[in-house]
Structures are given as C-alpha cells and as structure tokens.
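Intended use. Records like the one below are meant for learning the mapping from a protein sequence to its folded structure. Do not use them to infer anything beyond what is encoded.
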Amino acid sequence: MEAAAWTLPPVETGKVGEVELHFLSGRRYWYQAVFCLASFALAAKTTVKPVFHDDGSLDDEIFGALRRTFPLATRITEAEIEARLDEHLPATQFPRLRACRERMPLFRKILDPHVGSTGPKLLLDCDLLFFRQPSLIIEWLASPSRPLRATDIQNAYGYPLPLLNELAGCRVDERVNTGILGLRSEEFDWARMEAWCRGLIERQGAHYYQEQALVALHLAGRDAIAAPLGDYVTWPKPPEALACEAVMHHYVANSKRWYFQRNWRRFAPAQ
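Structure written out for the chain above:
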C-alpha cells in the first residue's frame, strides 16, 4: 500500500466543485491519507484540496509525493503549529492540554487545526475509505452550521458517562467518534477545555481515549450531526467489510485486516 502511494498518479475526477479536507499526518500515516483522499475524490466526483497538519515528520520528500497526486495540497508545518500554540495556548496557562498533546498524539486532533484559527474545518482520520457519494460530508462542507461527527459502535471515552455529564453540566451524547470531525475553530472555549482536561485527570487519570471524551464534552448540549453508522461504518465486519456497500469504512481495531489486505486496492491502478 505504501509503495503504491509513492507512484499513484494525479486523481482524475469529474471536477465538480472543490472541497477542503484536513488531516493530521506524517511519515507513519501519509500513504493512508493518500488512499483516503483518492477514494473520497472518486466517490464524491470532486476535486480535493487537502490540508496536512504536520506532526514533525512530513518531510519534503513525502509532501512532494502528496502534491504529485493532489496538486492543491498544502502543508502547515510543525514549527507553524508550535508557534500558534505558544501564542494562543501557552503552556503556562494551559499546562494540561499542552502536556497531553506531547504524551498523546490524538490530542493534536483537537489542538493543531483549531488553536489560533477561525472558520469551519472537516478533519478526517487517515484510515478511512469511501465507496459511495458522501453526501452528508459534501452538504456539511457547503453549509457547516452545526458540528459534524462520526458514530462509534460503543462509547469509547475512557471515562464513565456520569462523570462526563457532571463536568459538562448536561447530558453528553453517546458514541461520539472523531474519525470524521467537522467543527468551527472559533467555537472552542480553551479555558473550559483545559478545566475539563484537568478535571478528568484529577478524578480518574489520563486515558488513551481522553481526546474523544473532550470532544464529547465540547459537543454536549449542541445539536451536532451524527453520521449514521449504517452508511459511515466504524469497525466494518463481514459481509460489509468485503462487499463495501456503505458510503465509508473506518478501519479501527481488527477490521484493519480488510483495509490492508484488500480494500485499498480498489483505488490503485491495475498492476
């Protein structure tokens, strides 16, 4: 899959419209972003303008390969991200958020695209593939009036719902998944995010899924759009994992076998 990504030609679509999609990426996952983007462009019949938020390993060689396949791609370097964080989210005032970002890379999904920025951003995980027209995403990009998020097969917050409800001051939505995440940067209350982060750690310690818990807290009490699990499938299993009749698959946990062994090949030129 990685070898194929190096030589994937520019993705030709019907060039109907143009959409901006955001990714966190670097040397470890860039080739997965290539196939996510290629599948999205082909399914949506649109031109994609990917924005890559560099984790520090997205060097010129890799970015050159990305630009060959997606000529409109842009990169926000780690130095640019760090400067924005130091200006708008200094460690002296936001020690928990900054420390968690250093220890847990998933925190970058909250901080890196949004701190010091404004406007709507649609962030996708790299390990997604699209098979049919992603109308929900296209419609959100055209009119991002409400938050958009994916749906998990179960709650994966790392913390009990009563604790999240207590911190939010209202009921937190269940099964929030951040594989698809459409948010407006200016709607983040970073002081409140810091307080929530501190409260979770002080009450029950840090957790791998803490980033997802914080997003659930951020969305609590808001009319967010939840991508329907039947179309936007988290953790596909047979027969769907083989049939690929849904709009999208998010290959988490042991569903990655279908991703790496079979399904990415649908979007690679015939060998």
